[in-house]
Design a protein that fits this description.
The complex is a heterodimer of chains A (about 625) and B (about 200).
Chain A (H helix, E strand, L loop, with lengths): L6 H8 L5 H13 L1 H14 L13 H12 L13 H23 L1 H9 L5 H8 L6 H7 L5 H15 L12 E4 L21 E3 L5 E7 L4 E12 L2 E8 L5 E10 L6 E7 L7 E8 L3 E11 L2 E11 L5 E12 L5 E10 L2 E2 L4 H6 L30 E2 L4 E4 L18 E6 L2 E6 L3 E3 L3 E14 L1 E7 H4 L3 E8 L14 E8 L6 E9 L7 E8 L3 E17 L5 E16 L7 E6 L5 E5 L3 E5 L2 E6 L5 E14 L10
Chain B lengths: L1 H15 L3 H22 L3 H18 L8 H19 L4 E4 L9 H12 L5 H19 L3 H12 L4 H8 L3 H18 L6
Helix pairs in contact in B: 1-2, 2-3, 2-4, 2-7, 3-4, 4-8, 5-6, 6-9, 7-8, 7-9, 8-9
Classes of the chains: A alpha+beta (about 625), B mainly alpha (about 200).
C-alpha cells in the first residue's frame, strides 16, 4: 500500500471490517508509517469514548421474579388499546377515495350505474361504508366514522401521528410510570381529538377495585362510587362507559383521578350520536401508566328498608330488639364487595333517576347533520345533575353486617359495626363488604340490643280507635334503654312474646315505626288487645241550670253525665291502661274519685293499673256547659 | 459450548412441558448479557427492564417454535425485535418509575454512582464531567438508526462476531459490516473527546 490509510480504511482496520487481505495490507503499512499510526491512535482515542457505556449490567432478583411471574400467570387484558396498523389507514383512505371516484363515475355514466344496480346485494361491509351509520367491525367502522369536516380530519390525523410516538409500559409491569417531558416532538397537542364514533382507540373500563353504594330509600336513588385503575397513555385518551340494561342516570356520570390530579384533566363527556347507552370521556393525560380513578353516578333500582324484631321477656318489662336492613338490587348491575351505606331522610331531586335511565339519549335527541346545519351534531356534554339537593336532618347508615340465608353464605360471621358521626350524618363503618348481585336481595343485621326496658301500655280512646283497647310497647332511644347511639330508621316492627317458660314465642303484634331520633321516646302500636277490655256505660244524664234571654228563649244550660267504665284485665300480669275521654267542648268539669289529668282542652285522661285477672270500675260525672252557661266557667277551666 | 447449547434447548423443552424452574434458569443464564444489551439499546435502565420483560415474554410465547441449537442468537434476535418495536412506540418518551427516587432516575445516575464508588480519587467536578460524557455517548448511540445501533451494541459491547451478529439480525455479514461502518462513521462526529 503506497498511499496513506484513509479514515475509512483506518476504521475498517480498527474494527476488523475489512477483508483478511486488506487487514494484512493495512497492518503492514501501519508498521512502516508513523503518520498513519498517529492517525490510528487518534481514532482509537476518539472511539474510546464508547467504553463509557461499557459497564456490565446485572439483573436483580426482583427483575428475575417479575419475568418468571409474568410467564406463570395467564395474560389478562383488562385494558384494550385498539391499535391499528398504519397500513390500514392508508388502505382505508385508498378505499374511500376509490369509492368516491367510482361514485363520481357512476354519476356521470348512467349505464355503469345500472350495471352496479344489477350487481348482487352488497356485502354488509359495503353497506356500512355507504351509509356510515351502522355499528360495524372495527376497520369498517373506522372508515365509516371518518370526520366530515376538514378540520376534524386534520385533528384526527394529528392524533394518529401522535399515537405513533406514544410509548406503552409493558402490561405486566407492576410499577407506575410517569412520562417526563423531554423532547419537544412529543408535546401533547392542545387541540382535543375529534370524538371517535367507533370503538377504535378507546380505553374500556377495567374491573372495579372498590365500590361504595349510598342508598337513599326515600327517592329510589343510589350514589355509586367506583374506584378503577385505568391505564393512561400520555396525550389524549378516550374512555368508554356503557350502561346498557342498567338504570344508571347518564346525566350524573362523573370521573375524577385519585392520583396525578394535576397532570390529568377530564375534558368532557360525550354521548356519540347513534350509539345508545354509552358515553365517552375525553381525558388529557400528561402521564403514562396506571392511574386510579373514581367514577360516580346515580342509579335507581337499589333500595333498602329497615325492619325490626322485638322479643318481649316473660314479665314484659324488657325486650330484645334486633334491627335488620334488607337491600334489594334491581339496578341491572352486580355490585361485588360493595361497602353499603344507607341514607335516611328526604331527598329533593329534579328528576326521577329511573326516568332518566330509560331515556333513549342522555339529554336530548341527537341533532342530525341536517338539523345542525352540517356541524356534526349528536355530541352532548354532561356532568353531575345539578339541583340534586339534600334536605337537612338526614342520617347515613353504613351497613354491611351479617349475611343470612344459604344464598349468601359467603360470610356468616358477625361483623363489627363502627359508628361515627359525620356532619349531620351518622356513618356506620362496618367491617367488610357485601356482594349484592342484580335481582338479589340481602338481609343485613344492623343491631341487636338486649334488655331494653319497656313499658307495656294499653290505651282506650273511642275517638281514635272506637271501642277497642290498643296495646303499646313504649321505650326510648337513649342510653338508659341501651340504645341512643344513632337514630333508628323507620320500618316495620314485629313483636313476639315468650309464650312459656321453654321460650316458645307467640306473635304479639306488628306496626310501622317512624324515624326515631336519639333521646326520643317511641311507642309501638301493636294493635287491638284481646285480653284487656274497656266497657264504658252511661249511667245517668240530665240537664240543669237553664238560662233565658230577654225574650224567654233558652240561652244556656248544663249537661250532666255520669259514666261508669269497667276495665277487664284477663291477663295474668298487672297492666297499665290509659283511658282518654273526650267531651266535645272546652267547658267541662269532672267529679270523680279516680285521679285524672286534663289531656287537652277537650279531653281528660285516666291512668289505671288493674290487677291480673281483675275487673276494675271507674266512675265519673262530667258536667258540660253550653250557651250563656259557658261564661260561668271562664277562668275555671 | 455444545453441551451448554444442548442444555439451553433442554431447558426450553422443559419449560414447554411446564417445568417452572427451567425458565428461571434461562433468565439467570442470559440475564446479565441481555440486560446490558438492552440497556445500551434503550434510554435508561427502566426502559431496558421493560424490554427485558417483553423479550422473555416473547421467548415464553414462542418457546414451542424454538428448534435451533443457538439459544443465545435466538434470544438476542427476539430482544432486538422487541427493542426496535419499543423504539418505534416510545420515541421521545422517557419513562420513570414512581417507586424510584428522583435523584437516581436513570441509568446514567447508576453508572455515575458506580464510577464514583470505584474511584478513590473521586471529585464532584470529575463526576459531573464524566456524567456529561456518558450522556453524550449515550445520546450519540441513541441517535443511530435502530439497525445500526443493534449492530454496534452486539458487535462492540456484546462482543459477538460479525457472523453471529448477522445471525441475530437475520442478514448477511456484509450488511452487518456496512451497518457497523456507518454507525462508527456517524459516531465519529458525535463522540466526546475523553482523553483530553
Amino acid at each position: 500500500m503506497k498511499h496513506h490509510l484513509t479514515e475509512k480504511e483506518l476504521i475498517e482496520y480498527q474494527f476488523k471490517l475489512a477483508s483478511d487481505a486488506q487487514m494484512k495490507e493495512a497492518a503492514e503499512h501501519l508498521e512502516g508509517c508513523g503518520q498513519c499510526r498517529g492517525n490510528l491512535e487518534k481514532l482509537q482515542r476518539k472511539y474510546a469514548a464508547l467504553d463509557l457505556l461499557g459497564e456490565k449490567a446485572e439483573i436483580s432478583e426482583d427483575l428475575i421474579t417479575r419475568v418468571t411471574e409474568q410467564v406463570r400467570r395467564p395474560v389478562v387484558k383488562t385494558i384494550a388499546w385498539f391499535k391499528k396498523p398504519l397500513w390500514m389507514s392508508s388502505a382505508a383512505a385508498v378505499l374511500v377515495v376509490g369509492l368516491v371516484l367510482v361514485a363520481n363515475q357512476m354519476g356521470k355514466d348512467g349505464t355503469k350505474q345500472r350495471e352496479i344496480a344489477q350487481e348482487p346485494m352488497p356485502t354488509v361491509d359495503k353497506m356500512e361504508l355507504r351509509s356510515g351509520q351502522s355499528i360495524a367491525p372495527m376497520t369498517e367502522m373506522e372508515v365509516a366514522s371518518k370526520p366530515e369536516s376538514t378540520q376534524a380530519r386534520a385533528l384526527q390525523k394529528n392524533d394518529m401521528s401522535r399515537k405513533a410516538t406514544l410509548a406503552m409500559a409493558p402490561k405486566e409491569k407492576a410499577d407506575t410510570y410517569v412520562a417526563m417531558d423531554k423532547a419537544s416532538d412529543d408535546a401533547i397537542s392542545e387541540q382535543p381529538p375529534f370524538a371517535p364514533a367507533s370503538a377504535i382507540e378507546l380505553v374500556t373500563l377495567p374491573r372495579r377495585d372498590k365500590v361504595q353504594l349510598t342508598i337513599y330509600n326515600s327517592a329510589d336513588m343510589t350514589l355509586v362510587r367506583e374506584r378503577r385503575n385505568l391505564t393512561m397513555k400520555r396525550g389524549w385518551n378516550w374512555l368508554q362507559f356503557m350502561w346498557a340494561n342498567t338504570l344508571i342516570d347518564p346525566t350524573s356520570l362523573s370521573l375524577e383521578p385519585l392520583a396525578e390530579a394535576d397532570k390529568i384533566n377530564i375534558e368532557q363527556l360525550v354521548f356519540p350520536a347513534r350509539l345508545r347507552e354509552l358515553g365517552r370521556w375525553l381525558i388529557h393525560s400528561e402521564v403514562s401508566g396506571q392511574v386510579p380513578f373514581e367514577i360516580t353516578y346515580f342509579t335507581s333500582g337499589i333500595s333498602w328498608r329497615a325492619f325490626y324484631m322485638g322479643t318481649l321477656a316473660e314479665d314484659e318489662k324488657t325486650m330484645q330488639l334486633q334491627g335488620y336492613v334488607r337491600v334489594a338490587n334491581n339496578s341491572g348491575e352486580d355490585y361485588e364487595e360493595a361497602q353499603t351505606r344507607l341514607i335516611v331522610g328526604n331527598v329533593h331531586i329534579l328528576d326521577e333517576i329511573a326516568e332518566l335511565a330509560k331515556r333513549q339519549y342522555p339529554y336530548n335527541r341527537p341533532i342530525s347533520l341536517g338539523e345542525a346545519g352540517g356541524m356534526g351534531g349528536g355530541m352532548m356534554v354532561g356532568g353531575m345533575l345539578k339541583g340534586q339537593e339534600l334536605d337537612g336532618d338526614r342520617y347515613l347508615y353504613d351497613v354491611a353486617a351479617d349475611s343470612f340465608g344459604a344464598a349468601f353464605s359467603d360470610k356468616l360471621g358477625r361483623k363489627e359495626i363502627r359508628k361515627e358521626g359525620l356532619s349531620e350524618y351518622f356513618l356506620y363503618s362496618i367491617e367488610g363488604t357485601e356482594t349484592i348481585p342484580n335481582q338479589w336481595g340481602k338481609r343485613l343485621l344492623s343491631f341487636d340490643v338486649k334488655d331494653i326496658e319497656v313499658e307495656s301500655l294499653y290505651k282506650y280512646d273511642e275517638e281514635r280507635w272506637g271501642n277497642q283497647t290498643i296495646r303499646f310497647v313504649k321505650f326510648a332511644n337513649d342510653e338508659e334503654h341501651n340504645l341512643g347511639e344513632t337514630p333508628i330508621p323507620n320500618g316495620d316492627v314485629k313483636l313476639y312474646g315468650k309464650a312459656d317458660s321453654e321460650g316458645l314465642l307467640s306473635y304479639v303484634g306488628g306496626t310501622n315505626i317512624k324515624y326515631i331520633p336519639v333521646d326520643e321516646e317511641v311507642e309501638l302500636n301493636l294493635g287491638p288487645a284481646r285480653l284487656v277490655k274497656v266497657e264504658p256505660k252511661l249511667m245517668d244524664f240530665r240537664t240543669d241550670n237553664y238560662m233565658f234571654d230577654r225574650r224567654g228563649n233558652v240561652a244556656g244550660w248544663d249537661e250532666i253525665r255520669t259514666w261508669k267504665i269497667e276495665i277487664i284485665n284477663t291477663r295474668e300480669l298487672p297492666i297499665e291502661i290509659e283511658i282518654t275521654r273526650g267531651f266535645g267542648t272546652v267547658y267541662w268539669i269532672i267529679e270523680s274519685d279516680t285521679a285524672y289529668e286534663k289531656h287537652d282542652a277537650t279531653h281528660a285522661r285516666f291512668n289505671l293499673k288493674p290487677e291480673p285477672k281483675s275487673r276494675q270500675a271507674l266512675e265519673y260525672t262530667v258536667t258540660t256547659y253550653h250557651g250563656m252557661r259557658e261564661n260561668t266557667l271562664t277562668g275555671n277551666n | 459450548m455444545a453441551s451448554m447449547e444442548s442444555t439451553d434447548k433442554s431447558l426450553v423443552e422443559a419449560h414447554c412441558k411446564g417445568d417452572p424452574k427451567a425458565f428461571g434458569e434461562l433468565v439467570r443464564r442470559y440475564g446479565d448479557g441481555l440486560l446490558g444489551y438492552l440497556t445500551r439499546m434503550s434510554r435508561n435502565r427502566h426502559e431496558a427492564e421493560d424490554l427485558f420483560q417483553e423479550t422473555f415474554k416473547r421467548v415464553h410465547e414462542k418457546a414451542h417454535t424454538f428448534r435451533g441449537s443457538q439459544f443465545k442468537s435466538w434470544l438476542f434476535t427476539i430482544a432486538t425485535n422487541a427493542a426496535i418495536d419499543g423504539m418505534r412506540r416510545g420515541k421521545g418518551i422517557r419513562m420513570l418509575s414512581l417507586n424510584q427516587k428522583f435523584d437516581c432516575n436513570d441509568a446514567d445516575s447508576e453508572e455515575l454512582s458506580s464510577v464514583a464508588l470505584a474511584d478513590d480519587s473521586y471529585e464532584p467536578s470529575q463526576e459531573a464531567a464524566k456524567a456529561e460524557q456518558v450522556q453524550q455517548v449515550r445520546e450519540a448511540v441513541m441517535s443511530l438508526p435502530s439497525r445500526q445501533r443493534a449492530t454496534l451494541v452486539l458487535a462492540y459491547y456484546q462482543q459477538l462476531s460479525y457472523p453471529e451478529v448477522a445471525k441475530v439480525l437475520g442478514c448477511s455479514v456484509g450488511t452487518v459490516k456496512t451497518q457497523m461502518f456507518r454507525a462508527l462513521k456517524t459516531l465519529g462526529q458525535k463522540l466526546p473527546d475523553v482523553q483530553g
